[in-house]
Amino acid sequence: MNKVSVVTVSLMIAGALLLPLQGSSSANTVDQIVSPQIQSSHVKAKRIIDEAVKYKNIPGVIFVSSNKGSKWSYASGEASIYDNRPVKTNFTFRIGSITKTFVATVVLQLVDEQKLNLDDTVEKWLYSNTNTVLAGMIVEKVTGQTYDEQIRERFIGPLKLSNTYVADDFSFIPGEHARGYHKLDGKLIDRTETNPSWANAAGSMISTGDDLNTFFIALLGGKLLEPSTLEQMLTGVETPVGNYGLGIMETKLANGVTIWGHGGNTPGFATFTGGTLGGDYVQTVNINVMPSDINTLTLSKSIAEQLIKSSSK
To answer: In whole angstroms, what is the distance from residue 115 CA to residue 173 CA?
Structure first.
């Protein structure tokens, strides 16, 4: 039996973490009527975001959160280094490897529909081993539709993710968006227009903070997968960045709260989306430079620790 034949579907979608798609501020915010304690936590979160822009050489940061349906968002910095246009919380951006969570969820829904078995060998469906790209190919083999058609049919339509796109091979970013930069030798090079087709099922999608939060609320809230299948998704292996399951990873906050999510680094943008199991709290942080002087997971954890109480573990 050759090497391909012993690689199961579950191992494949647990494959790579982040592709080497690798991730005065003008600020706008949405503050609802909240308690003084929550207002204080918002002030601290804003300070963390503003300092990231000011001291970490990041053009702009977008932050969007949902706490039991109560939304709060904040953006700081510039959408372009040339015209001082501010970033806005509703901007679209490339999400890189967060695409993997969408693809993994399609695969796991096929398991729930008994069209696929996580113990199936890759050999049963194809004779290759390219992690999530291969998972996308298996989706097509099983359903007769491409992975992007399945994502549109299963998630974008039903969840009303009106600003989420599977980019395929178009190089532009739909909707209002920031310029995306690549740092090289201390200089920022514009990488906004990039053909993502090389990333395929592992990183070709575009979305917004609100749409990503909506998807993760549904996923972590048990609305997309059967309970036993979601449990399998969250069962993973230890890696340098935490416990990595099937297209999703576990991150522990200093206050003991566990966040489940995924990061995405791609030319021009770095993003992390994650939330608590049950979907009560979900947040997205995006920056418009990659690589940067701060990791989006690190920034996301710092903000989350201000906004989530330990009682929500």
So the answer is: 34
Over the stretch 51-70, which tens digit does the pLDDT of each residue have?
A: 999 988 899 999 999 999 99
Strand stretches in the chain, DSSP E: 27-30, 60-67, 70-77, 93-94, 165-166, 181-184, 187-190, 205-207, 237-239, 242-244, 249-252, 258-266, 269-275, 281-287
Comparison of pLDDT for 39 and 223, the residue scoring more: 223
What is the share, in percent, of the chain residues with pLDDT greater than 90? 66
Tokens of 41: 């936590």
Q: How many angstroms separate the CA atoms of 258 and 4, rounded?
A: 34
Residue type, 282: V
Domain residue spans in the chain?
A: 4-312
Q: Does residue 266 have a pLDDT over 60?
A: yes
Answer yes or no: is pLDDT of 283 > 50.
Answer: yes
- Residue 163: Cβ-neighbour burial (10 angstroms; 0-12, 13-18, 19+): buried
Residues 251, 261 contacting (CB under 8 angstroms) = yes
- Among candidates 301, 238, 233, which has minimal Cα distance to 52? 301
Tokens of 125: 């469906």
CATH fold for domain 4-312: Beta-lactamase (3.40.710)
Supply φ then ψ for residue 124, to 5 degrees: -65, -30
